[in-house]
Amino acid sequence: MTIKKITFLFLFLSFIFLHSAYPQKYNDVDKIVLKYPKRFNSTEDLAKRIQKDFTSEEDKARAIYSWIAFNVKYDYASFLNPPRTQGFSYSTEAEKQRKIQQLNDKLVQKAFTAQKAVCEGFTALYQHLAGLTGLKCEIIKGDSKTRLDDIGRKDTSSNHAWNIVLIGKKWILVDVTWGQGYYDSSKRRMVNDFAPIYFDTDPDYFFQKHFPDSGTYLGQKLSKDDFLNGPLIYNITIEGDHKIMEPNSGLIEVKNGENVTFRIKNISKTDQFFYLNKKNQPVRIDNAKERKGSLEFQVTFDKNIGQFITFYLGESSIVSFKVIMK
Predict the structure, then answer these.
(1) If we measure between CA atoms, which residue out of 11, 13, 18 comes closest to residue 183?
(2) Are 149 and 164 spatial neighbours (Cβ–Cβ below 8 Å)?
(3) Which tens digits make up the pLDDT trace of 112-147?
(4) What is the largest CA-CA distance in the chain?
(5) Where does the record place the Transglutaminase-like domain (predicted)?
(6) Region for 86 from its dihedrals, namely left if φ exceeds 0, alpha if ψ lies in -120 to 50, beta otherwise
């Protein structure tokens, strides 16, 4: 793949799902679920199959994730032209709750039978199947960070949804919508590309790309500023545990000719590591030194660097920053 093509995909994909290896402990679960029928007569039948094949809460939760990600596609047409919000009237609280449940059941069945959904459908189906297999699960609504322009924007919006599911005494994070694939703008269609990393994602990484409407997670307050102003990370960042050690912000305010120090975890001097300049030409990092399991290096910011700077490991984007010239 040429550098020009890499750049085109990076700039226009809403989110990029690249995976190098499945987490080892889930390999067997995914392999079994891959052999399941693509369609079941009912959600109850699917839940019974999962309960038959898996006994642990973790494996059942993973099996639900895998089956939905393998078989339900993102409904991009509905995303572009969402249906009108369906209202209803009620006279008692019981009637209100009953009608809300009816709407939710309809959402679940549509996702299950049509095998197309947006994030609301994915999360509702995941919660429904989790309940059928004896798992406690909740839906969380919030904001997502997927584009260059998301770096440093002023406020959050409620544009996404994901799940948390209780495994033993621990709540884990699940985003099956992002687990099923990505939108390829060059082909103008969704591409199914299973991403295992959005099951039990490390919260430190998860909340760099998600921010709940409540502003909290399990009672702990999250930093809205860190979410809005942090750098943009990608799937490969999470898979390779490439934590961004320096700088702390995704907004790089510099004067022309100023040097900025970067430090990224789990990258070595022998890796093919570079960034693209304003002309989309690769600039290899050649002043790097390895320090405590990370790569430390400096970049001189001048007129050759554009509004954003993105670092690549091979052909995969690792992290992007917004450049603000003083």
Answers:
(1) 13
(2) no
(3) 999 999 999 999 999 999 999 999 999 999 999 999
(4) 70
(5) 111-178
(6) beta
**pLDDT per residue as tens digits for the range 226-236:** 999 999 999 99
Ranges of H-type helices in the chain = 3-12, 27-34, 43-53, 57-71, 76-80, 93-114, 119-132, 176-179, 203-209, 224-229, 235-239
Q: Rounded CA gap, 177 and 63, in Å?
A: 15
Domains of the chain listed by start with CATH number:
18-227 (3.30.2140), 244-325 (2.60.40)
Task: For residue 275, give both structure tokens.
Answer: 């960034």
Answer whether residue 70 shows pLDDT above 70: yes
For strands 220-221 and 216-217, give the pairing: antiparallel
57: nearest Cα among 140, 142, 165, 138:
165
* Closest to 22 (Cα-Cα) out of 239, 315, 181, 235: 239
Name residue 222's amino acid: L
Q: Which of 307, 312, 260 is nearest to 287 (CA)?
A: 260
Measured CA to CA, the distance from residue 144 to residue 314 in angstroms comes to 26
Give whole-number Cα distances, 121 to 75, 208, 260, in Å.
Answer: 10, 23, 43
Token pair for residue 84?
């009108």
- DSSP conformational letter for 322: E
CA 94 and chain centroid, separation: 36
Helix (H) or strand (E) holding 291: strand 289-291
Q: Per the structure block, which two tokens stand in for 257?
A: 């000719």
Helical segments of 223-302, H only: 224-229, 235-239
Amino acid of residue 2:
T
Separation between Cα atoms, residue 60 and residue 267, nearest integer Å: 34
Entry field: residues in the chain: 326
> What element of type H or E holds 261?
strand 258-265
Contact 318, 312 (CB under 8 A): yes
Instruction: Please report, as a single letter, which amino acid is at residue 130.
Output: A
